[in-house]
Specification:
- Two copies of one chain form a homodimer.
- The first copy, chain A, is of the alpha+beta class.
- Helices cover 33% and strands 38% of the residues of chain A.
- A three-stranded antiparallel beta sheet of chain A has the order 2-1-3.
- The longest helix of chain A is centred in the C-terminal third of the chain and has 16 residues.
- Chain A is elongated, with a radius of gyration of 16 Å.
- Chains A and B meet through β1, α1, β2 and α2 of A and β1, α1, β2 and α2 of B.
- β2 of chain A pairs antiparallel with β2 of chain B, so a sheet runs across the interface.
- Chains A, B: Keywords: ATP-binding, Cytoplasm, Ligase, Nucleotide-binding, Purine biosynthesis.
- Chains A, B: Pathway: Purine metabolism; IMP biosynthesis via de novo pathway; 5-amino-1-(5-phospho-D-ribosyl)imidazole from N(2)-formyl-N(1)-(5-phospho-D-ribosyl)glycinamide: step 1/2.
């Protein structure tokens, strides 16, 4: 069994209004040290497969086909072996 | 300058309908190896402060006061030094 930790974030070229809104809210709460904020999605998925390579292949595929919008988002992930 | 990578996820006791919906969608796309899916939020924020301890303190505070809903969510973060 493998655990995939998937990070989906906006492409640099894409405006991140959510991140801007959070930054402004934090400044209104007097967190002046905050320079930039970006918000993305974080997924954890357990995969019942027999090798790390297979887990990477499945994770790539589920990101491309469902979890990340290729026009606006980019993704990266980490794979960990968990249990048998 | 410090970069905080923040992961906000549902508490274990809280139902994650979004994660369930994604799991079902992936099964319909024939990704049978997928066992569980949980979706959370991922933030990156740059902090203009002078120590890692200060960066941790600010990050804790912005999570408690804005980024994570204490009733339903839990958070963890990683701090990296970036630039001067």
């Amino acid at each position: 069994m493998y655990l995939a930790k998937i990070f989906v974030t906006h492409k640099k070229s894409i405006l991140d209004p959510q991140g801007e809104a959070i930054k402004n809210a934090l400044h209104r709460l007097d967190y002046e040290a905050v320079e930039n904020v970006s918000q993305g999605k974080y997924f954890e998925t357990t995969l019942n497969c027999d090798s790390e390579d297979k887990a990477k292949q499945i994770t790539d595929s589920i990101c491309d086909s469902l979890l990340a919008n290729p026009n606006m988002e980019t993704y990266r992930f980490e794979i960990e072996k968990v249990g048998d």
